[in-house]
Amino acid sequence: MSNLYTGPDGKPRCGWCAATPEYVHYHDNEWGFPVDDDRRLFEKLCLEGFQSGLSWRTILAKRENFRAAFHGFDYTRIARFGERDVQRLLQDAGIVRHRGKIEATINNAQRALELVEREGSLAAFVWRFQPVKPLAKPQVVSTSPESVAMSKTMKKLGWRFVGPTTVYAFMQAMGLVNDHADGCTFRTKADQARKRFKLPAV
């Protein structure tokens, strides 16, 4: 796949946008732009976990179903889910029906509550792992020292499905790194958004 893809509007974008039209809107409006909203951060961590072994295209197509099934990824509500909720979700054809991933989401909601109580917000914790130096070259790695460190810390805190590759994909999407390809129209826009972004209070 080419490093760049020219969209219907003539603008060059990251090459992975060529895979499906749905990627273009996601790429242009979300991917790589900094996020400090705890619910959105938690949602992305969960969806990256559900993606494990699958494609993001599959998860993106089901995202609204996931949001409905998990109450908009309100972790305060998900933390109270029990076996009846697990069974309900296992019968929901609109999501990925994987018991381990469903139970991990419930567990991670409980861990998120603990983390927020200790750190003040999920954002404050996550952004602590923002790389100090920009990437030497975009889209050439699937992990980083920071994603390894964040993964290890989260695992020690009891989180599941948060391996270094999953965490790095999360960092790309939530703007902790700007991994838009060189020449992508939205690389500059993501950089501008990152410059305006105020780091969450730690």
Automatic annotation (TrEMBL):
Protein name (Swiss-Prot/TrEMBL): DNA-3-methyladenine glycosylase I
Alphabetical list of Pfam families matching this protein: Adenine_glyco
Keywords in alphabetical order: Metal-binding, Zinc
Coiled coil: none
A Gene Ontology biological process term: base-excision repair
Entry binding sites for Zn(2+): 14, 27, 180, 184
One MF annotation (Gene Ontology) recorded for this entry: DNA-3-methyladenine glycosylase activity
Superkingdom, taxonomy of origin: Bacteria
Biological source species: Pseudoxanthomonas helianthi
SUPFAM superfamilies (alphabetical): DNA-glycosylase
Lineage of producing organism: Bacteria, Pseudomonadati, Pseudomonadota, Gammaproteobacteria, Lysobacterales
